[in-house]
Write a structure and sequence with these properties.
129 residues; mainly alpha; two-stranded parallel ribbon; 6 helices
Length: 129
């Protein structure tokens, strides 16, 4: 099995396991305990809405379905598109205070620049309050 296939299988397993309420509760609790060690960057579909709802730093990175399908095809071929379709059956809820970053025309460095700029601006607001 290739590294790409391993990654897709692990994502698929995570998607299956995340449907079990007891597993979700354990993972959410473990993530919250990580916060006591200082600053934390966490990526996930429910991080800003369910795990850390009070954080001022929430971002929803997206692109139109056509763009996502093209990217998945380049990365994983047809098999990846099948996994993308399964993954999108349960879209994450976008928190009201999240910044939506549309990456359809942004290169990764540009998307990162948008996020870092927003972190800087939001951190100034947090410090001011």
């Amino acid at each position: 099995m290739s590294r790409k296939e391993e990654l897709l299988f692990s994502r698929m397993d995570a998607a299956i396991m995340s449907r079990v309420p007891e597993v979700r509760a354990l993972v959410f609790d473990a993530l919250r305990r990580c916060k006591k060690h200082g600053r934390l960057v966490v990526l996930g579909r429910e991080i800003g809405g369910s795990v850390f709802p009070s954080t001022p730093f929430k971002f929803f990175v997206t692109a139109p379905r056509r763009v996502r399908k093209e990217r998945h095809f380049v990365r994983y071929r047809n098999w990846g598109i099948t996994q993308l379709d399964q993954h999108e059956r349960t879209p994450g809820r976008i928190p009201n205070d999240a910044l939506i970053v549309d990456t359809s025309v942004l290169l990764p460095d540009a998307a990162l620049g948008v996020i870092l700029t927003e972190i800087f601006l939001r951190s100034r607001r947090v410090i001011a309050h």
